[in-house]
């Protein structure tokens, strides 16, 4: 869908008041800025009253007195997720090994079953999505798989493509080593994994990990991805995030996919920061693969199982990290030494799925599907619009590092302040859970399923009070640790 339309307001809708005010003169100061409904508290109450999703908050567990703005790192437990986890724990206790075949539903196909549940959220056919492993492991196996395809001469057609350097010689010339195109603002683990996969094929990652630079330290301009493809003929895989983990910039998946394919490269995405918050159309966009986690916006719990997408046209390939759980299901237990990949994304599973790390996902996805991913996105944009407007009006020392256009904004807002780390500590001490990302970003995530507009206002009130009083200045800065 066109994200800019979701909350653009042509059709009114429950969040229209936020849009109308924000499209006018903004919120102004607390004493009124002359816009249609400038009092933020009144506006927040109106929006919360009219919010068709407001009832969902009661189905998530956020402790009293806590404003949880960190669901982009770890989503909260829900009744539904705990119920599906409890069910599997009961099955383990009561059925033991029989759970693999006799539980309802049987554990044996948990990866495929949960993949089916996730597929509509990313616009994929059920056979193209499976849960298994973690993001990092899935980057390893998918980058490895597609590097192997390129090295075997089976990559996408690049006949028509002529890059400035023209070095690619797929039929055995000296420059047959493919490069992987990533960007400077990626989550580091993806680079570690891509580098390792290049190294394992004797390819020097210092040469062949091509990194698109950021112009502003916050975002990646899609024109720079296109320029990198135009400059280098050796790019065999474009591996980008759907949304940047720090600034929250949302990428144009279809545009990048088209550019990659025109250049004869595969294209894959790390959707950790959008899956469950932003609707995707991976099938229509024609991408080759994607990876994401389920512990952020999918609310399946700490360390919950990862997920991946592989386009149907690639089913049947042998994964770089093959394992028995990716074997053709019908013959998996024949224990053949020869590996026959499942004819689905299921082939990219590796070993036995961690049932207890997968079980909560069943309930948590059901809840999101009940709310509706399009409606969640519409509310999320209204929440972040409201947050950005409040920051503009009330926090002069804070910059918004997240793009303002809806089409380029994910589910969280990056607030930039020179004392961001100490500010985030002071907020946590006041029950506002956010996180800090170096060097200067406080990430605030008003996740749509369980956050109200009044919550957003309270967060900004707290930030304003801390900055005005200087309360954050008494906090020490740390050296690492989980934030
Ligand atoms: C964008 C992104 N990619 C990759 C990872 C690593 O994920 P995992 O630890 O599940 O492998 C994370 C973790 O937060 C992430 O945010």
Automatic annotation (TrEMBL):
Cofactor(s) listed in the protein's UniProt record: pyridoxal 5'-phosphate
Keyword Iron-sulfur among record annotations: no
Highest taxon listed in the record's lineage: Archaea
Gly residues bias locations: 25-35
One CC-aspect GO term: cytoplasm
SUPFAM superfamilies linked: PLP-dependent transferases
Keyword check for Hydrolase: yes
Function in brief: Catalyzes the cleavage of L-kynurenine (L-Kyn) and L-3-hydroxykynurenine (L-3OHKyn) into anthranilic acid (AA) and 3-hydroxyanthranilic acid (3-OHAA), respectively.
Family per similarity comment: Belongs to the kynureninase family.
Annotated protein name in UniProt: Kynureninase
Protein source organism: Halorubrum salipaludis
């Amino acid at each position: 869908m066109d994200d800019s339309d979701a909350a653009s307001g042509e059709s009114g809708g429950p969040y229209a008041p936020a849009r109308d005010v924000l499209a006018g003169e903004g919120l102004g100061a607390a004493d009124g800025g002359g816009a249609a409904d400038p009092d933020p508290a009144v506006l927040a109450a109106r929006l919360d009253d009219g919010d068709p999703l407001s009832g969902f908050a009661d189905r998530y567990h956020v402790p009293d007195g806590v404003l949880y703005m960190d669901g982009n790192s770890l989503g909260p437990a829900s009744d539904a997720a705990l119920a599906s986890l409890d069910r599997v724990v009961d099955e383990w206790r009561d059925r033991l090994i029989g759970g693999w075949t006799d539980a309802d539903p049987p554990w044996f196909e948990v990866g495929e079953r949960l993949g089916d549940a996730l597929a509509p959220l990313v616009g994929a056919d059920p056979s193209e999505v499976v849960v298994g492993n973690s993001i990092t492991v899935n980057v390893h196996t998918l980058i490895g798989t597609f590097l192997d395809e390129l090295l075997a001469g089976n990559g996408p057609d690049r006949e028509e493509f002529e890059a400035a350097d023209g070095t690619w010689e797929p039929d055995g010339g000296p420059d047959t080593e493919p490069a992987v195109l990533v960007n400077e603002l990626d989550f580091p683990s993806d680079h570690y994994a891509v580098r390792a996969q290049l190294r394992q094929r004797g390819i020097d990652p210092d040469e062949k990990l091509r990194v698109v630079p950021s112009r502003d330290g916050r975002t990646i301009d899609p024109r720079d991805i296109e320029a990198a493809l135009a400059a280098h003929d050796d790019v065999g895989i474009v591996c980008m995030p759907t949304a940047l983990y720090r600034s929250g910039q949302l990428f144009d998946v279809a545009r990048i996919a088209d550019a990659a394919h025109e250049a004869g490269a595969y294209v894959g995405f790390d959707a950790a920061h959008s899956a469950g918050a932003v609707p995707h159309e991976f099938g229509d966009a024609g991408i080759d693969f994607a990876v994401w986690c389920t512990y952020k916006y999918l609310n399946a719990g700490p360390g919950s199982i990862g997920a991946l997408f592989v386009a149907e046209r690639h089913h049947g390939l042998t994964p770089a990290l093959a394992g028995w759980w990716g074997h053709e299901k019908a013959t998996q237990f024949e224990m053949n030494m020869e590996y026959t990949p499942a004819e689905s994304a299921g082939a990219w599973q590796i070993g036995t799925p961690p049932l207890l790390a997968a079980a909560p996902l069943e309930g948590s996805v059901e809840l999101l599907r009940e709310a509706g991913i399009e409606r969640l996105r519409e509310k999320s944009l209204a929440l972040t619009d409201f947050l950005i407007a409040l920051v503009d009006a009330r926090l002069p020392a804070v910059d918004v590092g997240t793009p303002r256009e809806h089409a380029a904004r994910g589910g969280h807002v990056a607030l930039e302040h020179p004392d961001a780390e100490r500010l985030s500590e002071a907020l946590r001490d006041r029950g506002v859970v956010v996180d800090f990302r170096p060097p200067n970003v406080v990430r605030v995530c008003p996740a749509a399923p369980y956050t109200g507009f009044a919550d957003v206002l309270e967060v900004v009130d707290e930030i304003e009070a801390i900055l005005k009083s200087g309360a954050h200045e008494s906090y020490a800065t740390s050296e690492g640790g989980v934030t």
